[in-house]
Amino acid sequence: MLESDDAKGRISYICKLIYEAYRIPVFWLDTGGSIHVVLPASFECRATLQGSGSLLDEVSDFAAQQTGARDQSGGVSSLPLLYTTGFLEQFILLRLPDGQPGSSGTVIIGPVLSAPITGDNAADLMRDYNLAPSQQESWLQYYRSLPVLSRTRWYHAALLLHTLVTGEELSVTDLLLTAPVQQSAEYTGNGPDLDLSYRRENEWLHHDPMLEREMFRFIAAGDKEGLLASQAAFSEESFGLLSKKSRLRSKKNLAVSSITLATRAAIEGGLFWEIAYTLSDFHIQHIEELNDIPAVDRAQTAALCDFADRVRDNRRSKHSRMSALCQNYIFNHLYEEITLGRLAEVAGLNPSYLSHLFKKETGLAVSDYIQRERIEEAKRLMTLPGITLSDIATRLHFNDQSYFTKVFKKFTGFTPRQFRHDMGNYY
């Protein structure tokens, strides 16, 4: 009995350590599903969905299924499992080694999120699972109560739990290799071999990959004319069929693939990666909303041209790698405090030397460049409805409204109110 109490106390202590280290929920369930430990004691799982068990039941069922599959295949069953629900909650599960009285069952860590859930995210989930829109606010409150951990920290929590319980080392690679392997899609109908034969017989061959490389080289070079000429070389028959059930869906999938490749090409061409990824998101979202094939074709061409134009404009003001690194960092962190010391770390240079080089290449001191970029961002924000000038000043780290007005006039010749009024968006 004493040995059993010692083992139980050790697992309880490990649960407490994990909770204290990461401030994430920790549960210990015995083999019958009874809860030995729940931390924090006040934690409440989300409401049970109609027609399903509790969240812990869902996680426990997953653990039982995976453990059973491992046992049948002769695999090791005491490695952590990573599980993500359809509602984006993430869990770590570790079945405790058998043969130790008082310490059987499963330790469950979670739920946590890998990123905050916004109102739009929640609305999308409500639609995906046919939940009433009236439930959105309660779901948002639940999501806001969950901790957010980066993927790296999440993996390390799993490694720590495993080592504390078993005393054995485990690498991230070993952890990820234990993840359930999804079966490859089974071929239906005649499969790819007959399709391959049919395409060759009818000379409906896919495009030469050199044509594709050439097209994306034009994007990387910012050459829209070359891009359009290259794109014209593609015949309709040379494109793959990415959906057998919907021609429109196939076209959308092809467009998304093209935009993904164009994003990489634009980054290689020197476009700031945050701009490139944001453009990609914007164009893909737009294409997903279209309802006919010609519109998708036009949108795809417009997207590729947009990337080429952005690269061209960026190349016209091309500076050294040092300046590009600093400008990219400033662009990405415009809504945060930006110091010369942090930019020096990014560029790998002494702060005073960086300041000298930056002004020599751009014609502006670092502080003036940051101010100018914030004013450009303020001008963009002013085109949006529902945001006040004071909100803009606060978000862009201007100390007060009068200082914002002074800097804005320095770079534009107008006060913020005059500028907004001239745009017809005066509030």
Characterization of this structure:
The longest helix has 24 residues, at 293-316. The model is unreliable at 71-76, 181-185 and 198-208 (pLDDT under 50). With 427 residues, this protein is α+β, with helices and mostly antiparallel strands. A 5-stranded antiparallel sheet has the order 2-1-5-4-3, with helices on both faces. Helix content is 59%, strand content 6%.
CA-based gyration radius: 28 Å
Order of helices and strands: HEEHEEEHHHHHHHHHHHHHHHHH
What number is the mean pLDDT? 79
Total DSSP E strands = 5
Instruction: Indicate the structural class.
Output: alpha+beta
Describe the sheet with the most strands: 5 strands, antiparallel
Choose one word for the global shape: globular
Helix content: 55-70%
Care to give the gist of this entry?
Helices cover 59% and strands 6% of the residues. It is of the alpha+beta class. β1 (26-29) and β2 (35-39) form a beta hairpin.
